[in-house]
Amino acid sequence: MLPCLNKTLFGIECPGCGLQRSVALLLDGKFEAAFHMYPAIYSLILLSIFLLINIFITFKYQRIIKITLITINVLIVIISYIIKMSNLT
Fold it and tell me: What is the three-class DSSP state of 64?
């Protein structure tokens, strides 16, 4: 696994910490552990699948769908990061 530069330099985790471990857990079939490691993993997968499909197929409301999925992902990442950082103390 690649070390987190933010954690190495400043000693605190970044909002992306846990993504690599979550993907590794997902590939091992540990779906619940992957979610606990990085709660945005499944919404990121959904966004990635949509973006890949959208390369080949255009949808009527593709812009709205993209904005909605990105907003959901950003909110999940921020909320889970706040919860993670508040549990450290």
Answer: helix
Q: Work out the angle at residue 1's Cα, subtended by the Cα atoms of residues 44 and 31, and round it to the nearest 5 degrees.
A: 45
Mean pLDDT, all residues of the chain:
93
Question: Quick count: other Cβ atoms within 10 Å of Cβ 36?
Answer: 13
The mean per-residue pLDDT over the stretch 49-68 comes to 95
The total number of residues written for the chain in this structure: 89
Distance CA 59, CA 84 (A): 36
**Would you say 78 and 14 are in contact if contact means Cβ atoms under 8 Å apart?**
no
Say what angle helices 41-56 and 62-86 make with each other, to 10 degrees.
160
Token pair of 79 as six digits: 């909320």
34 CB-contact burial (10 Å; exposed 0-12 / middle 13-18 / buried 19+): buried
In this prediction the pTM is: 0.86
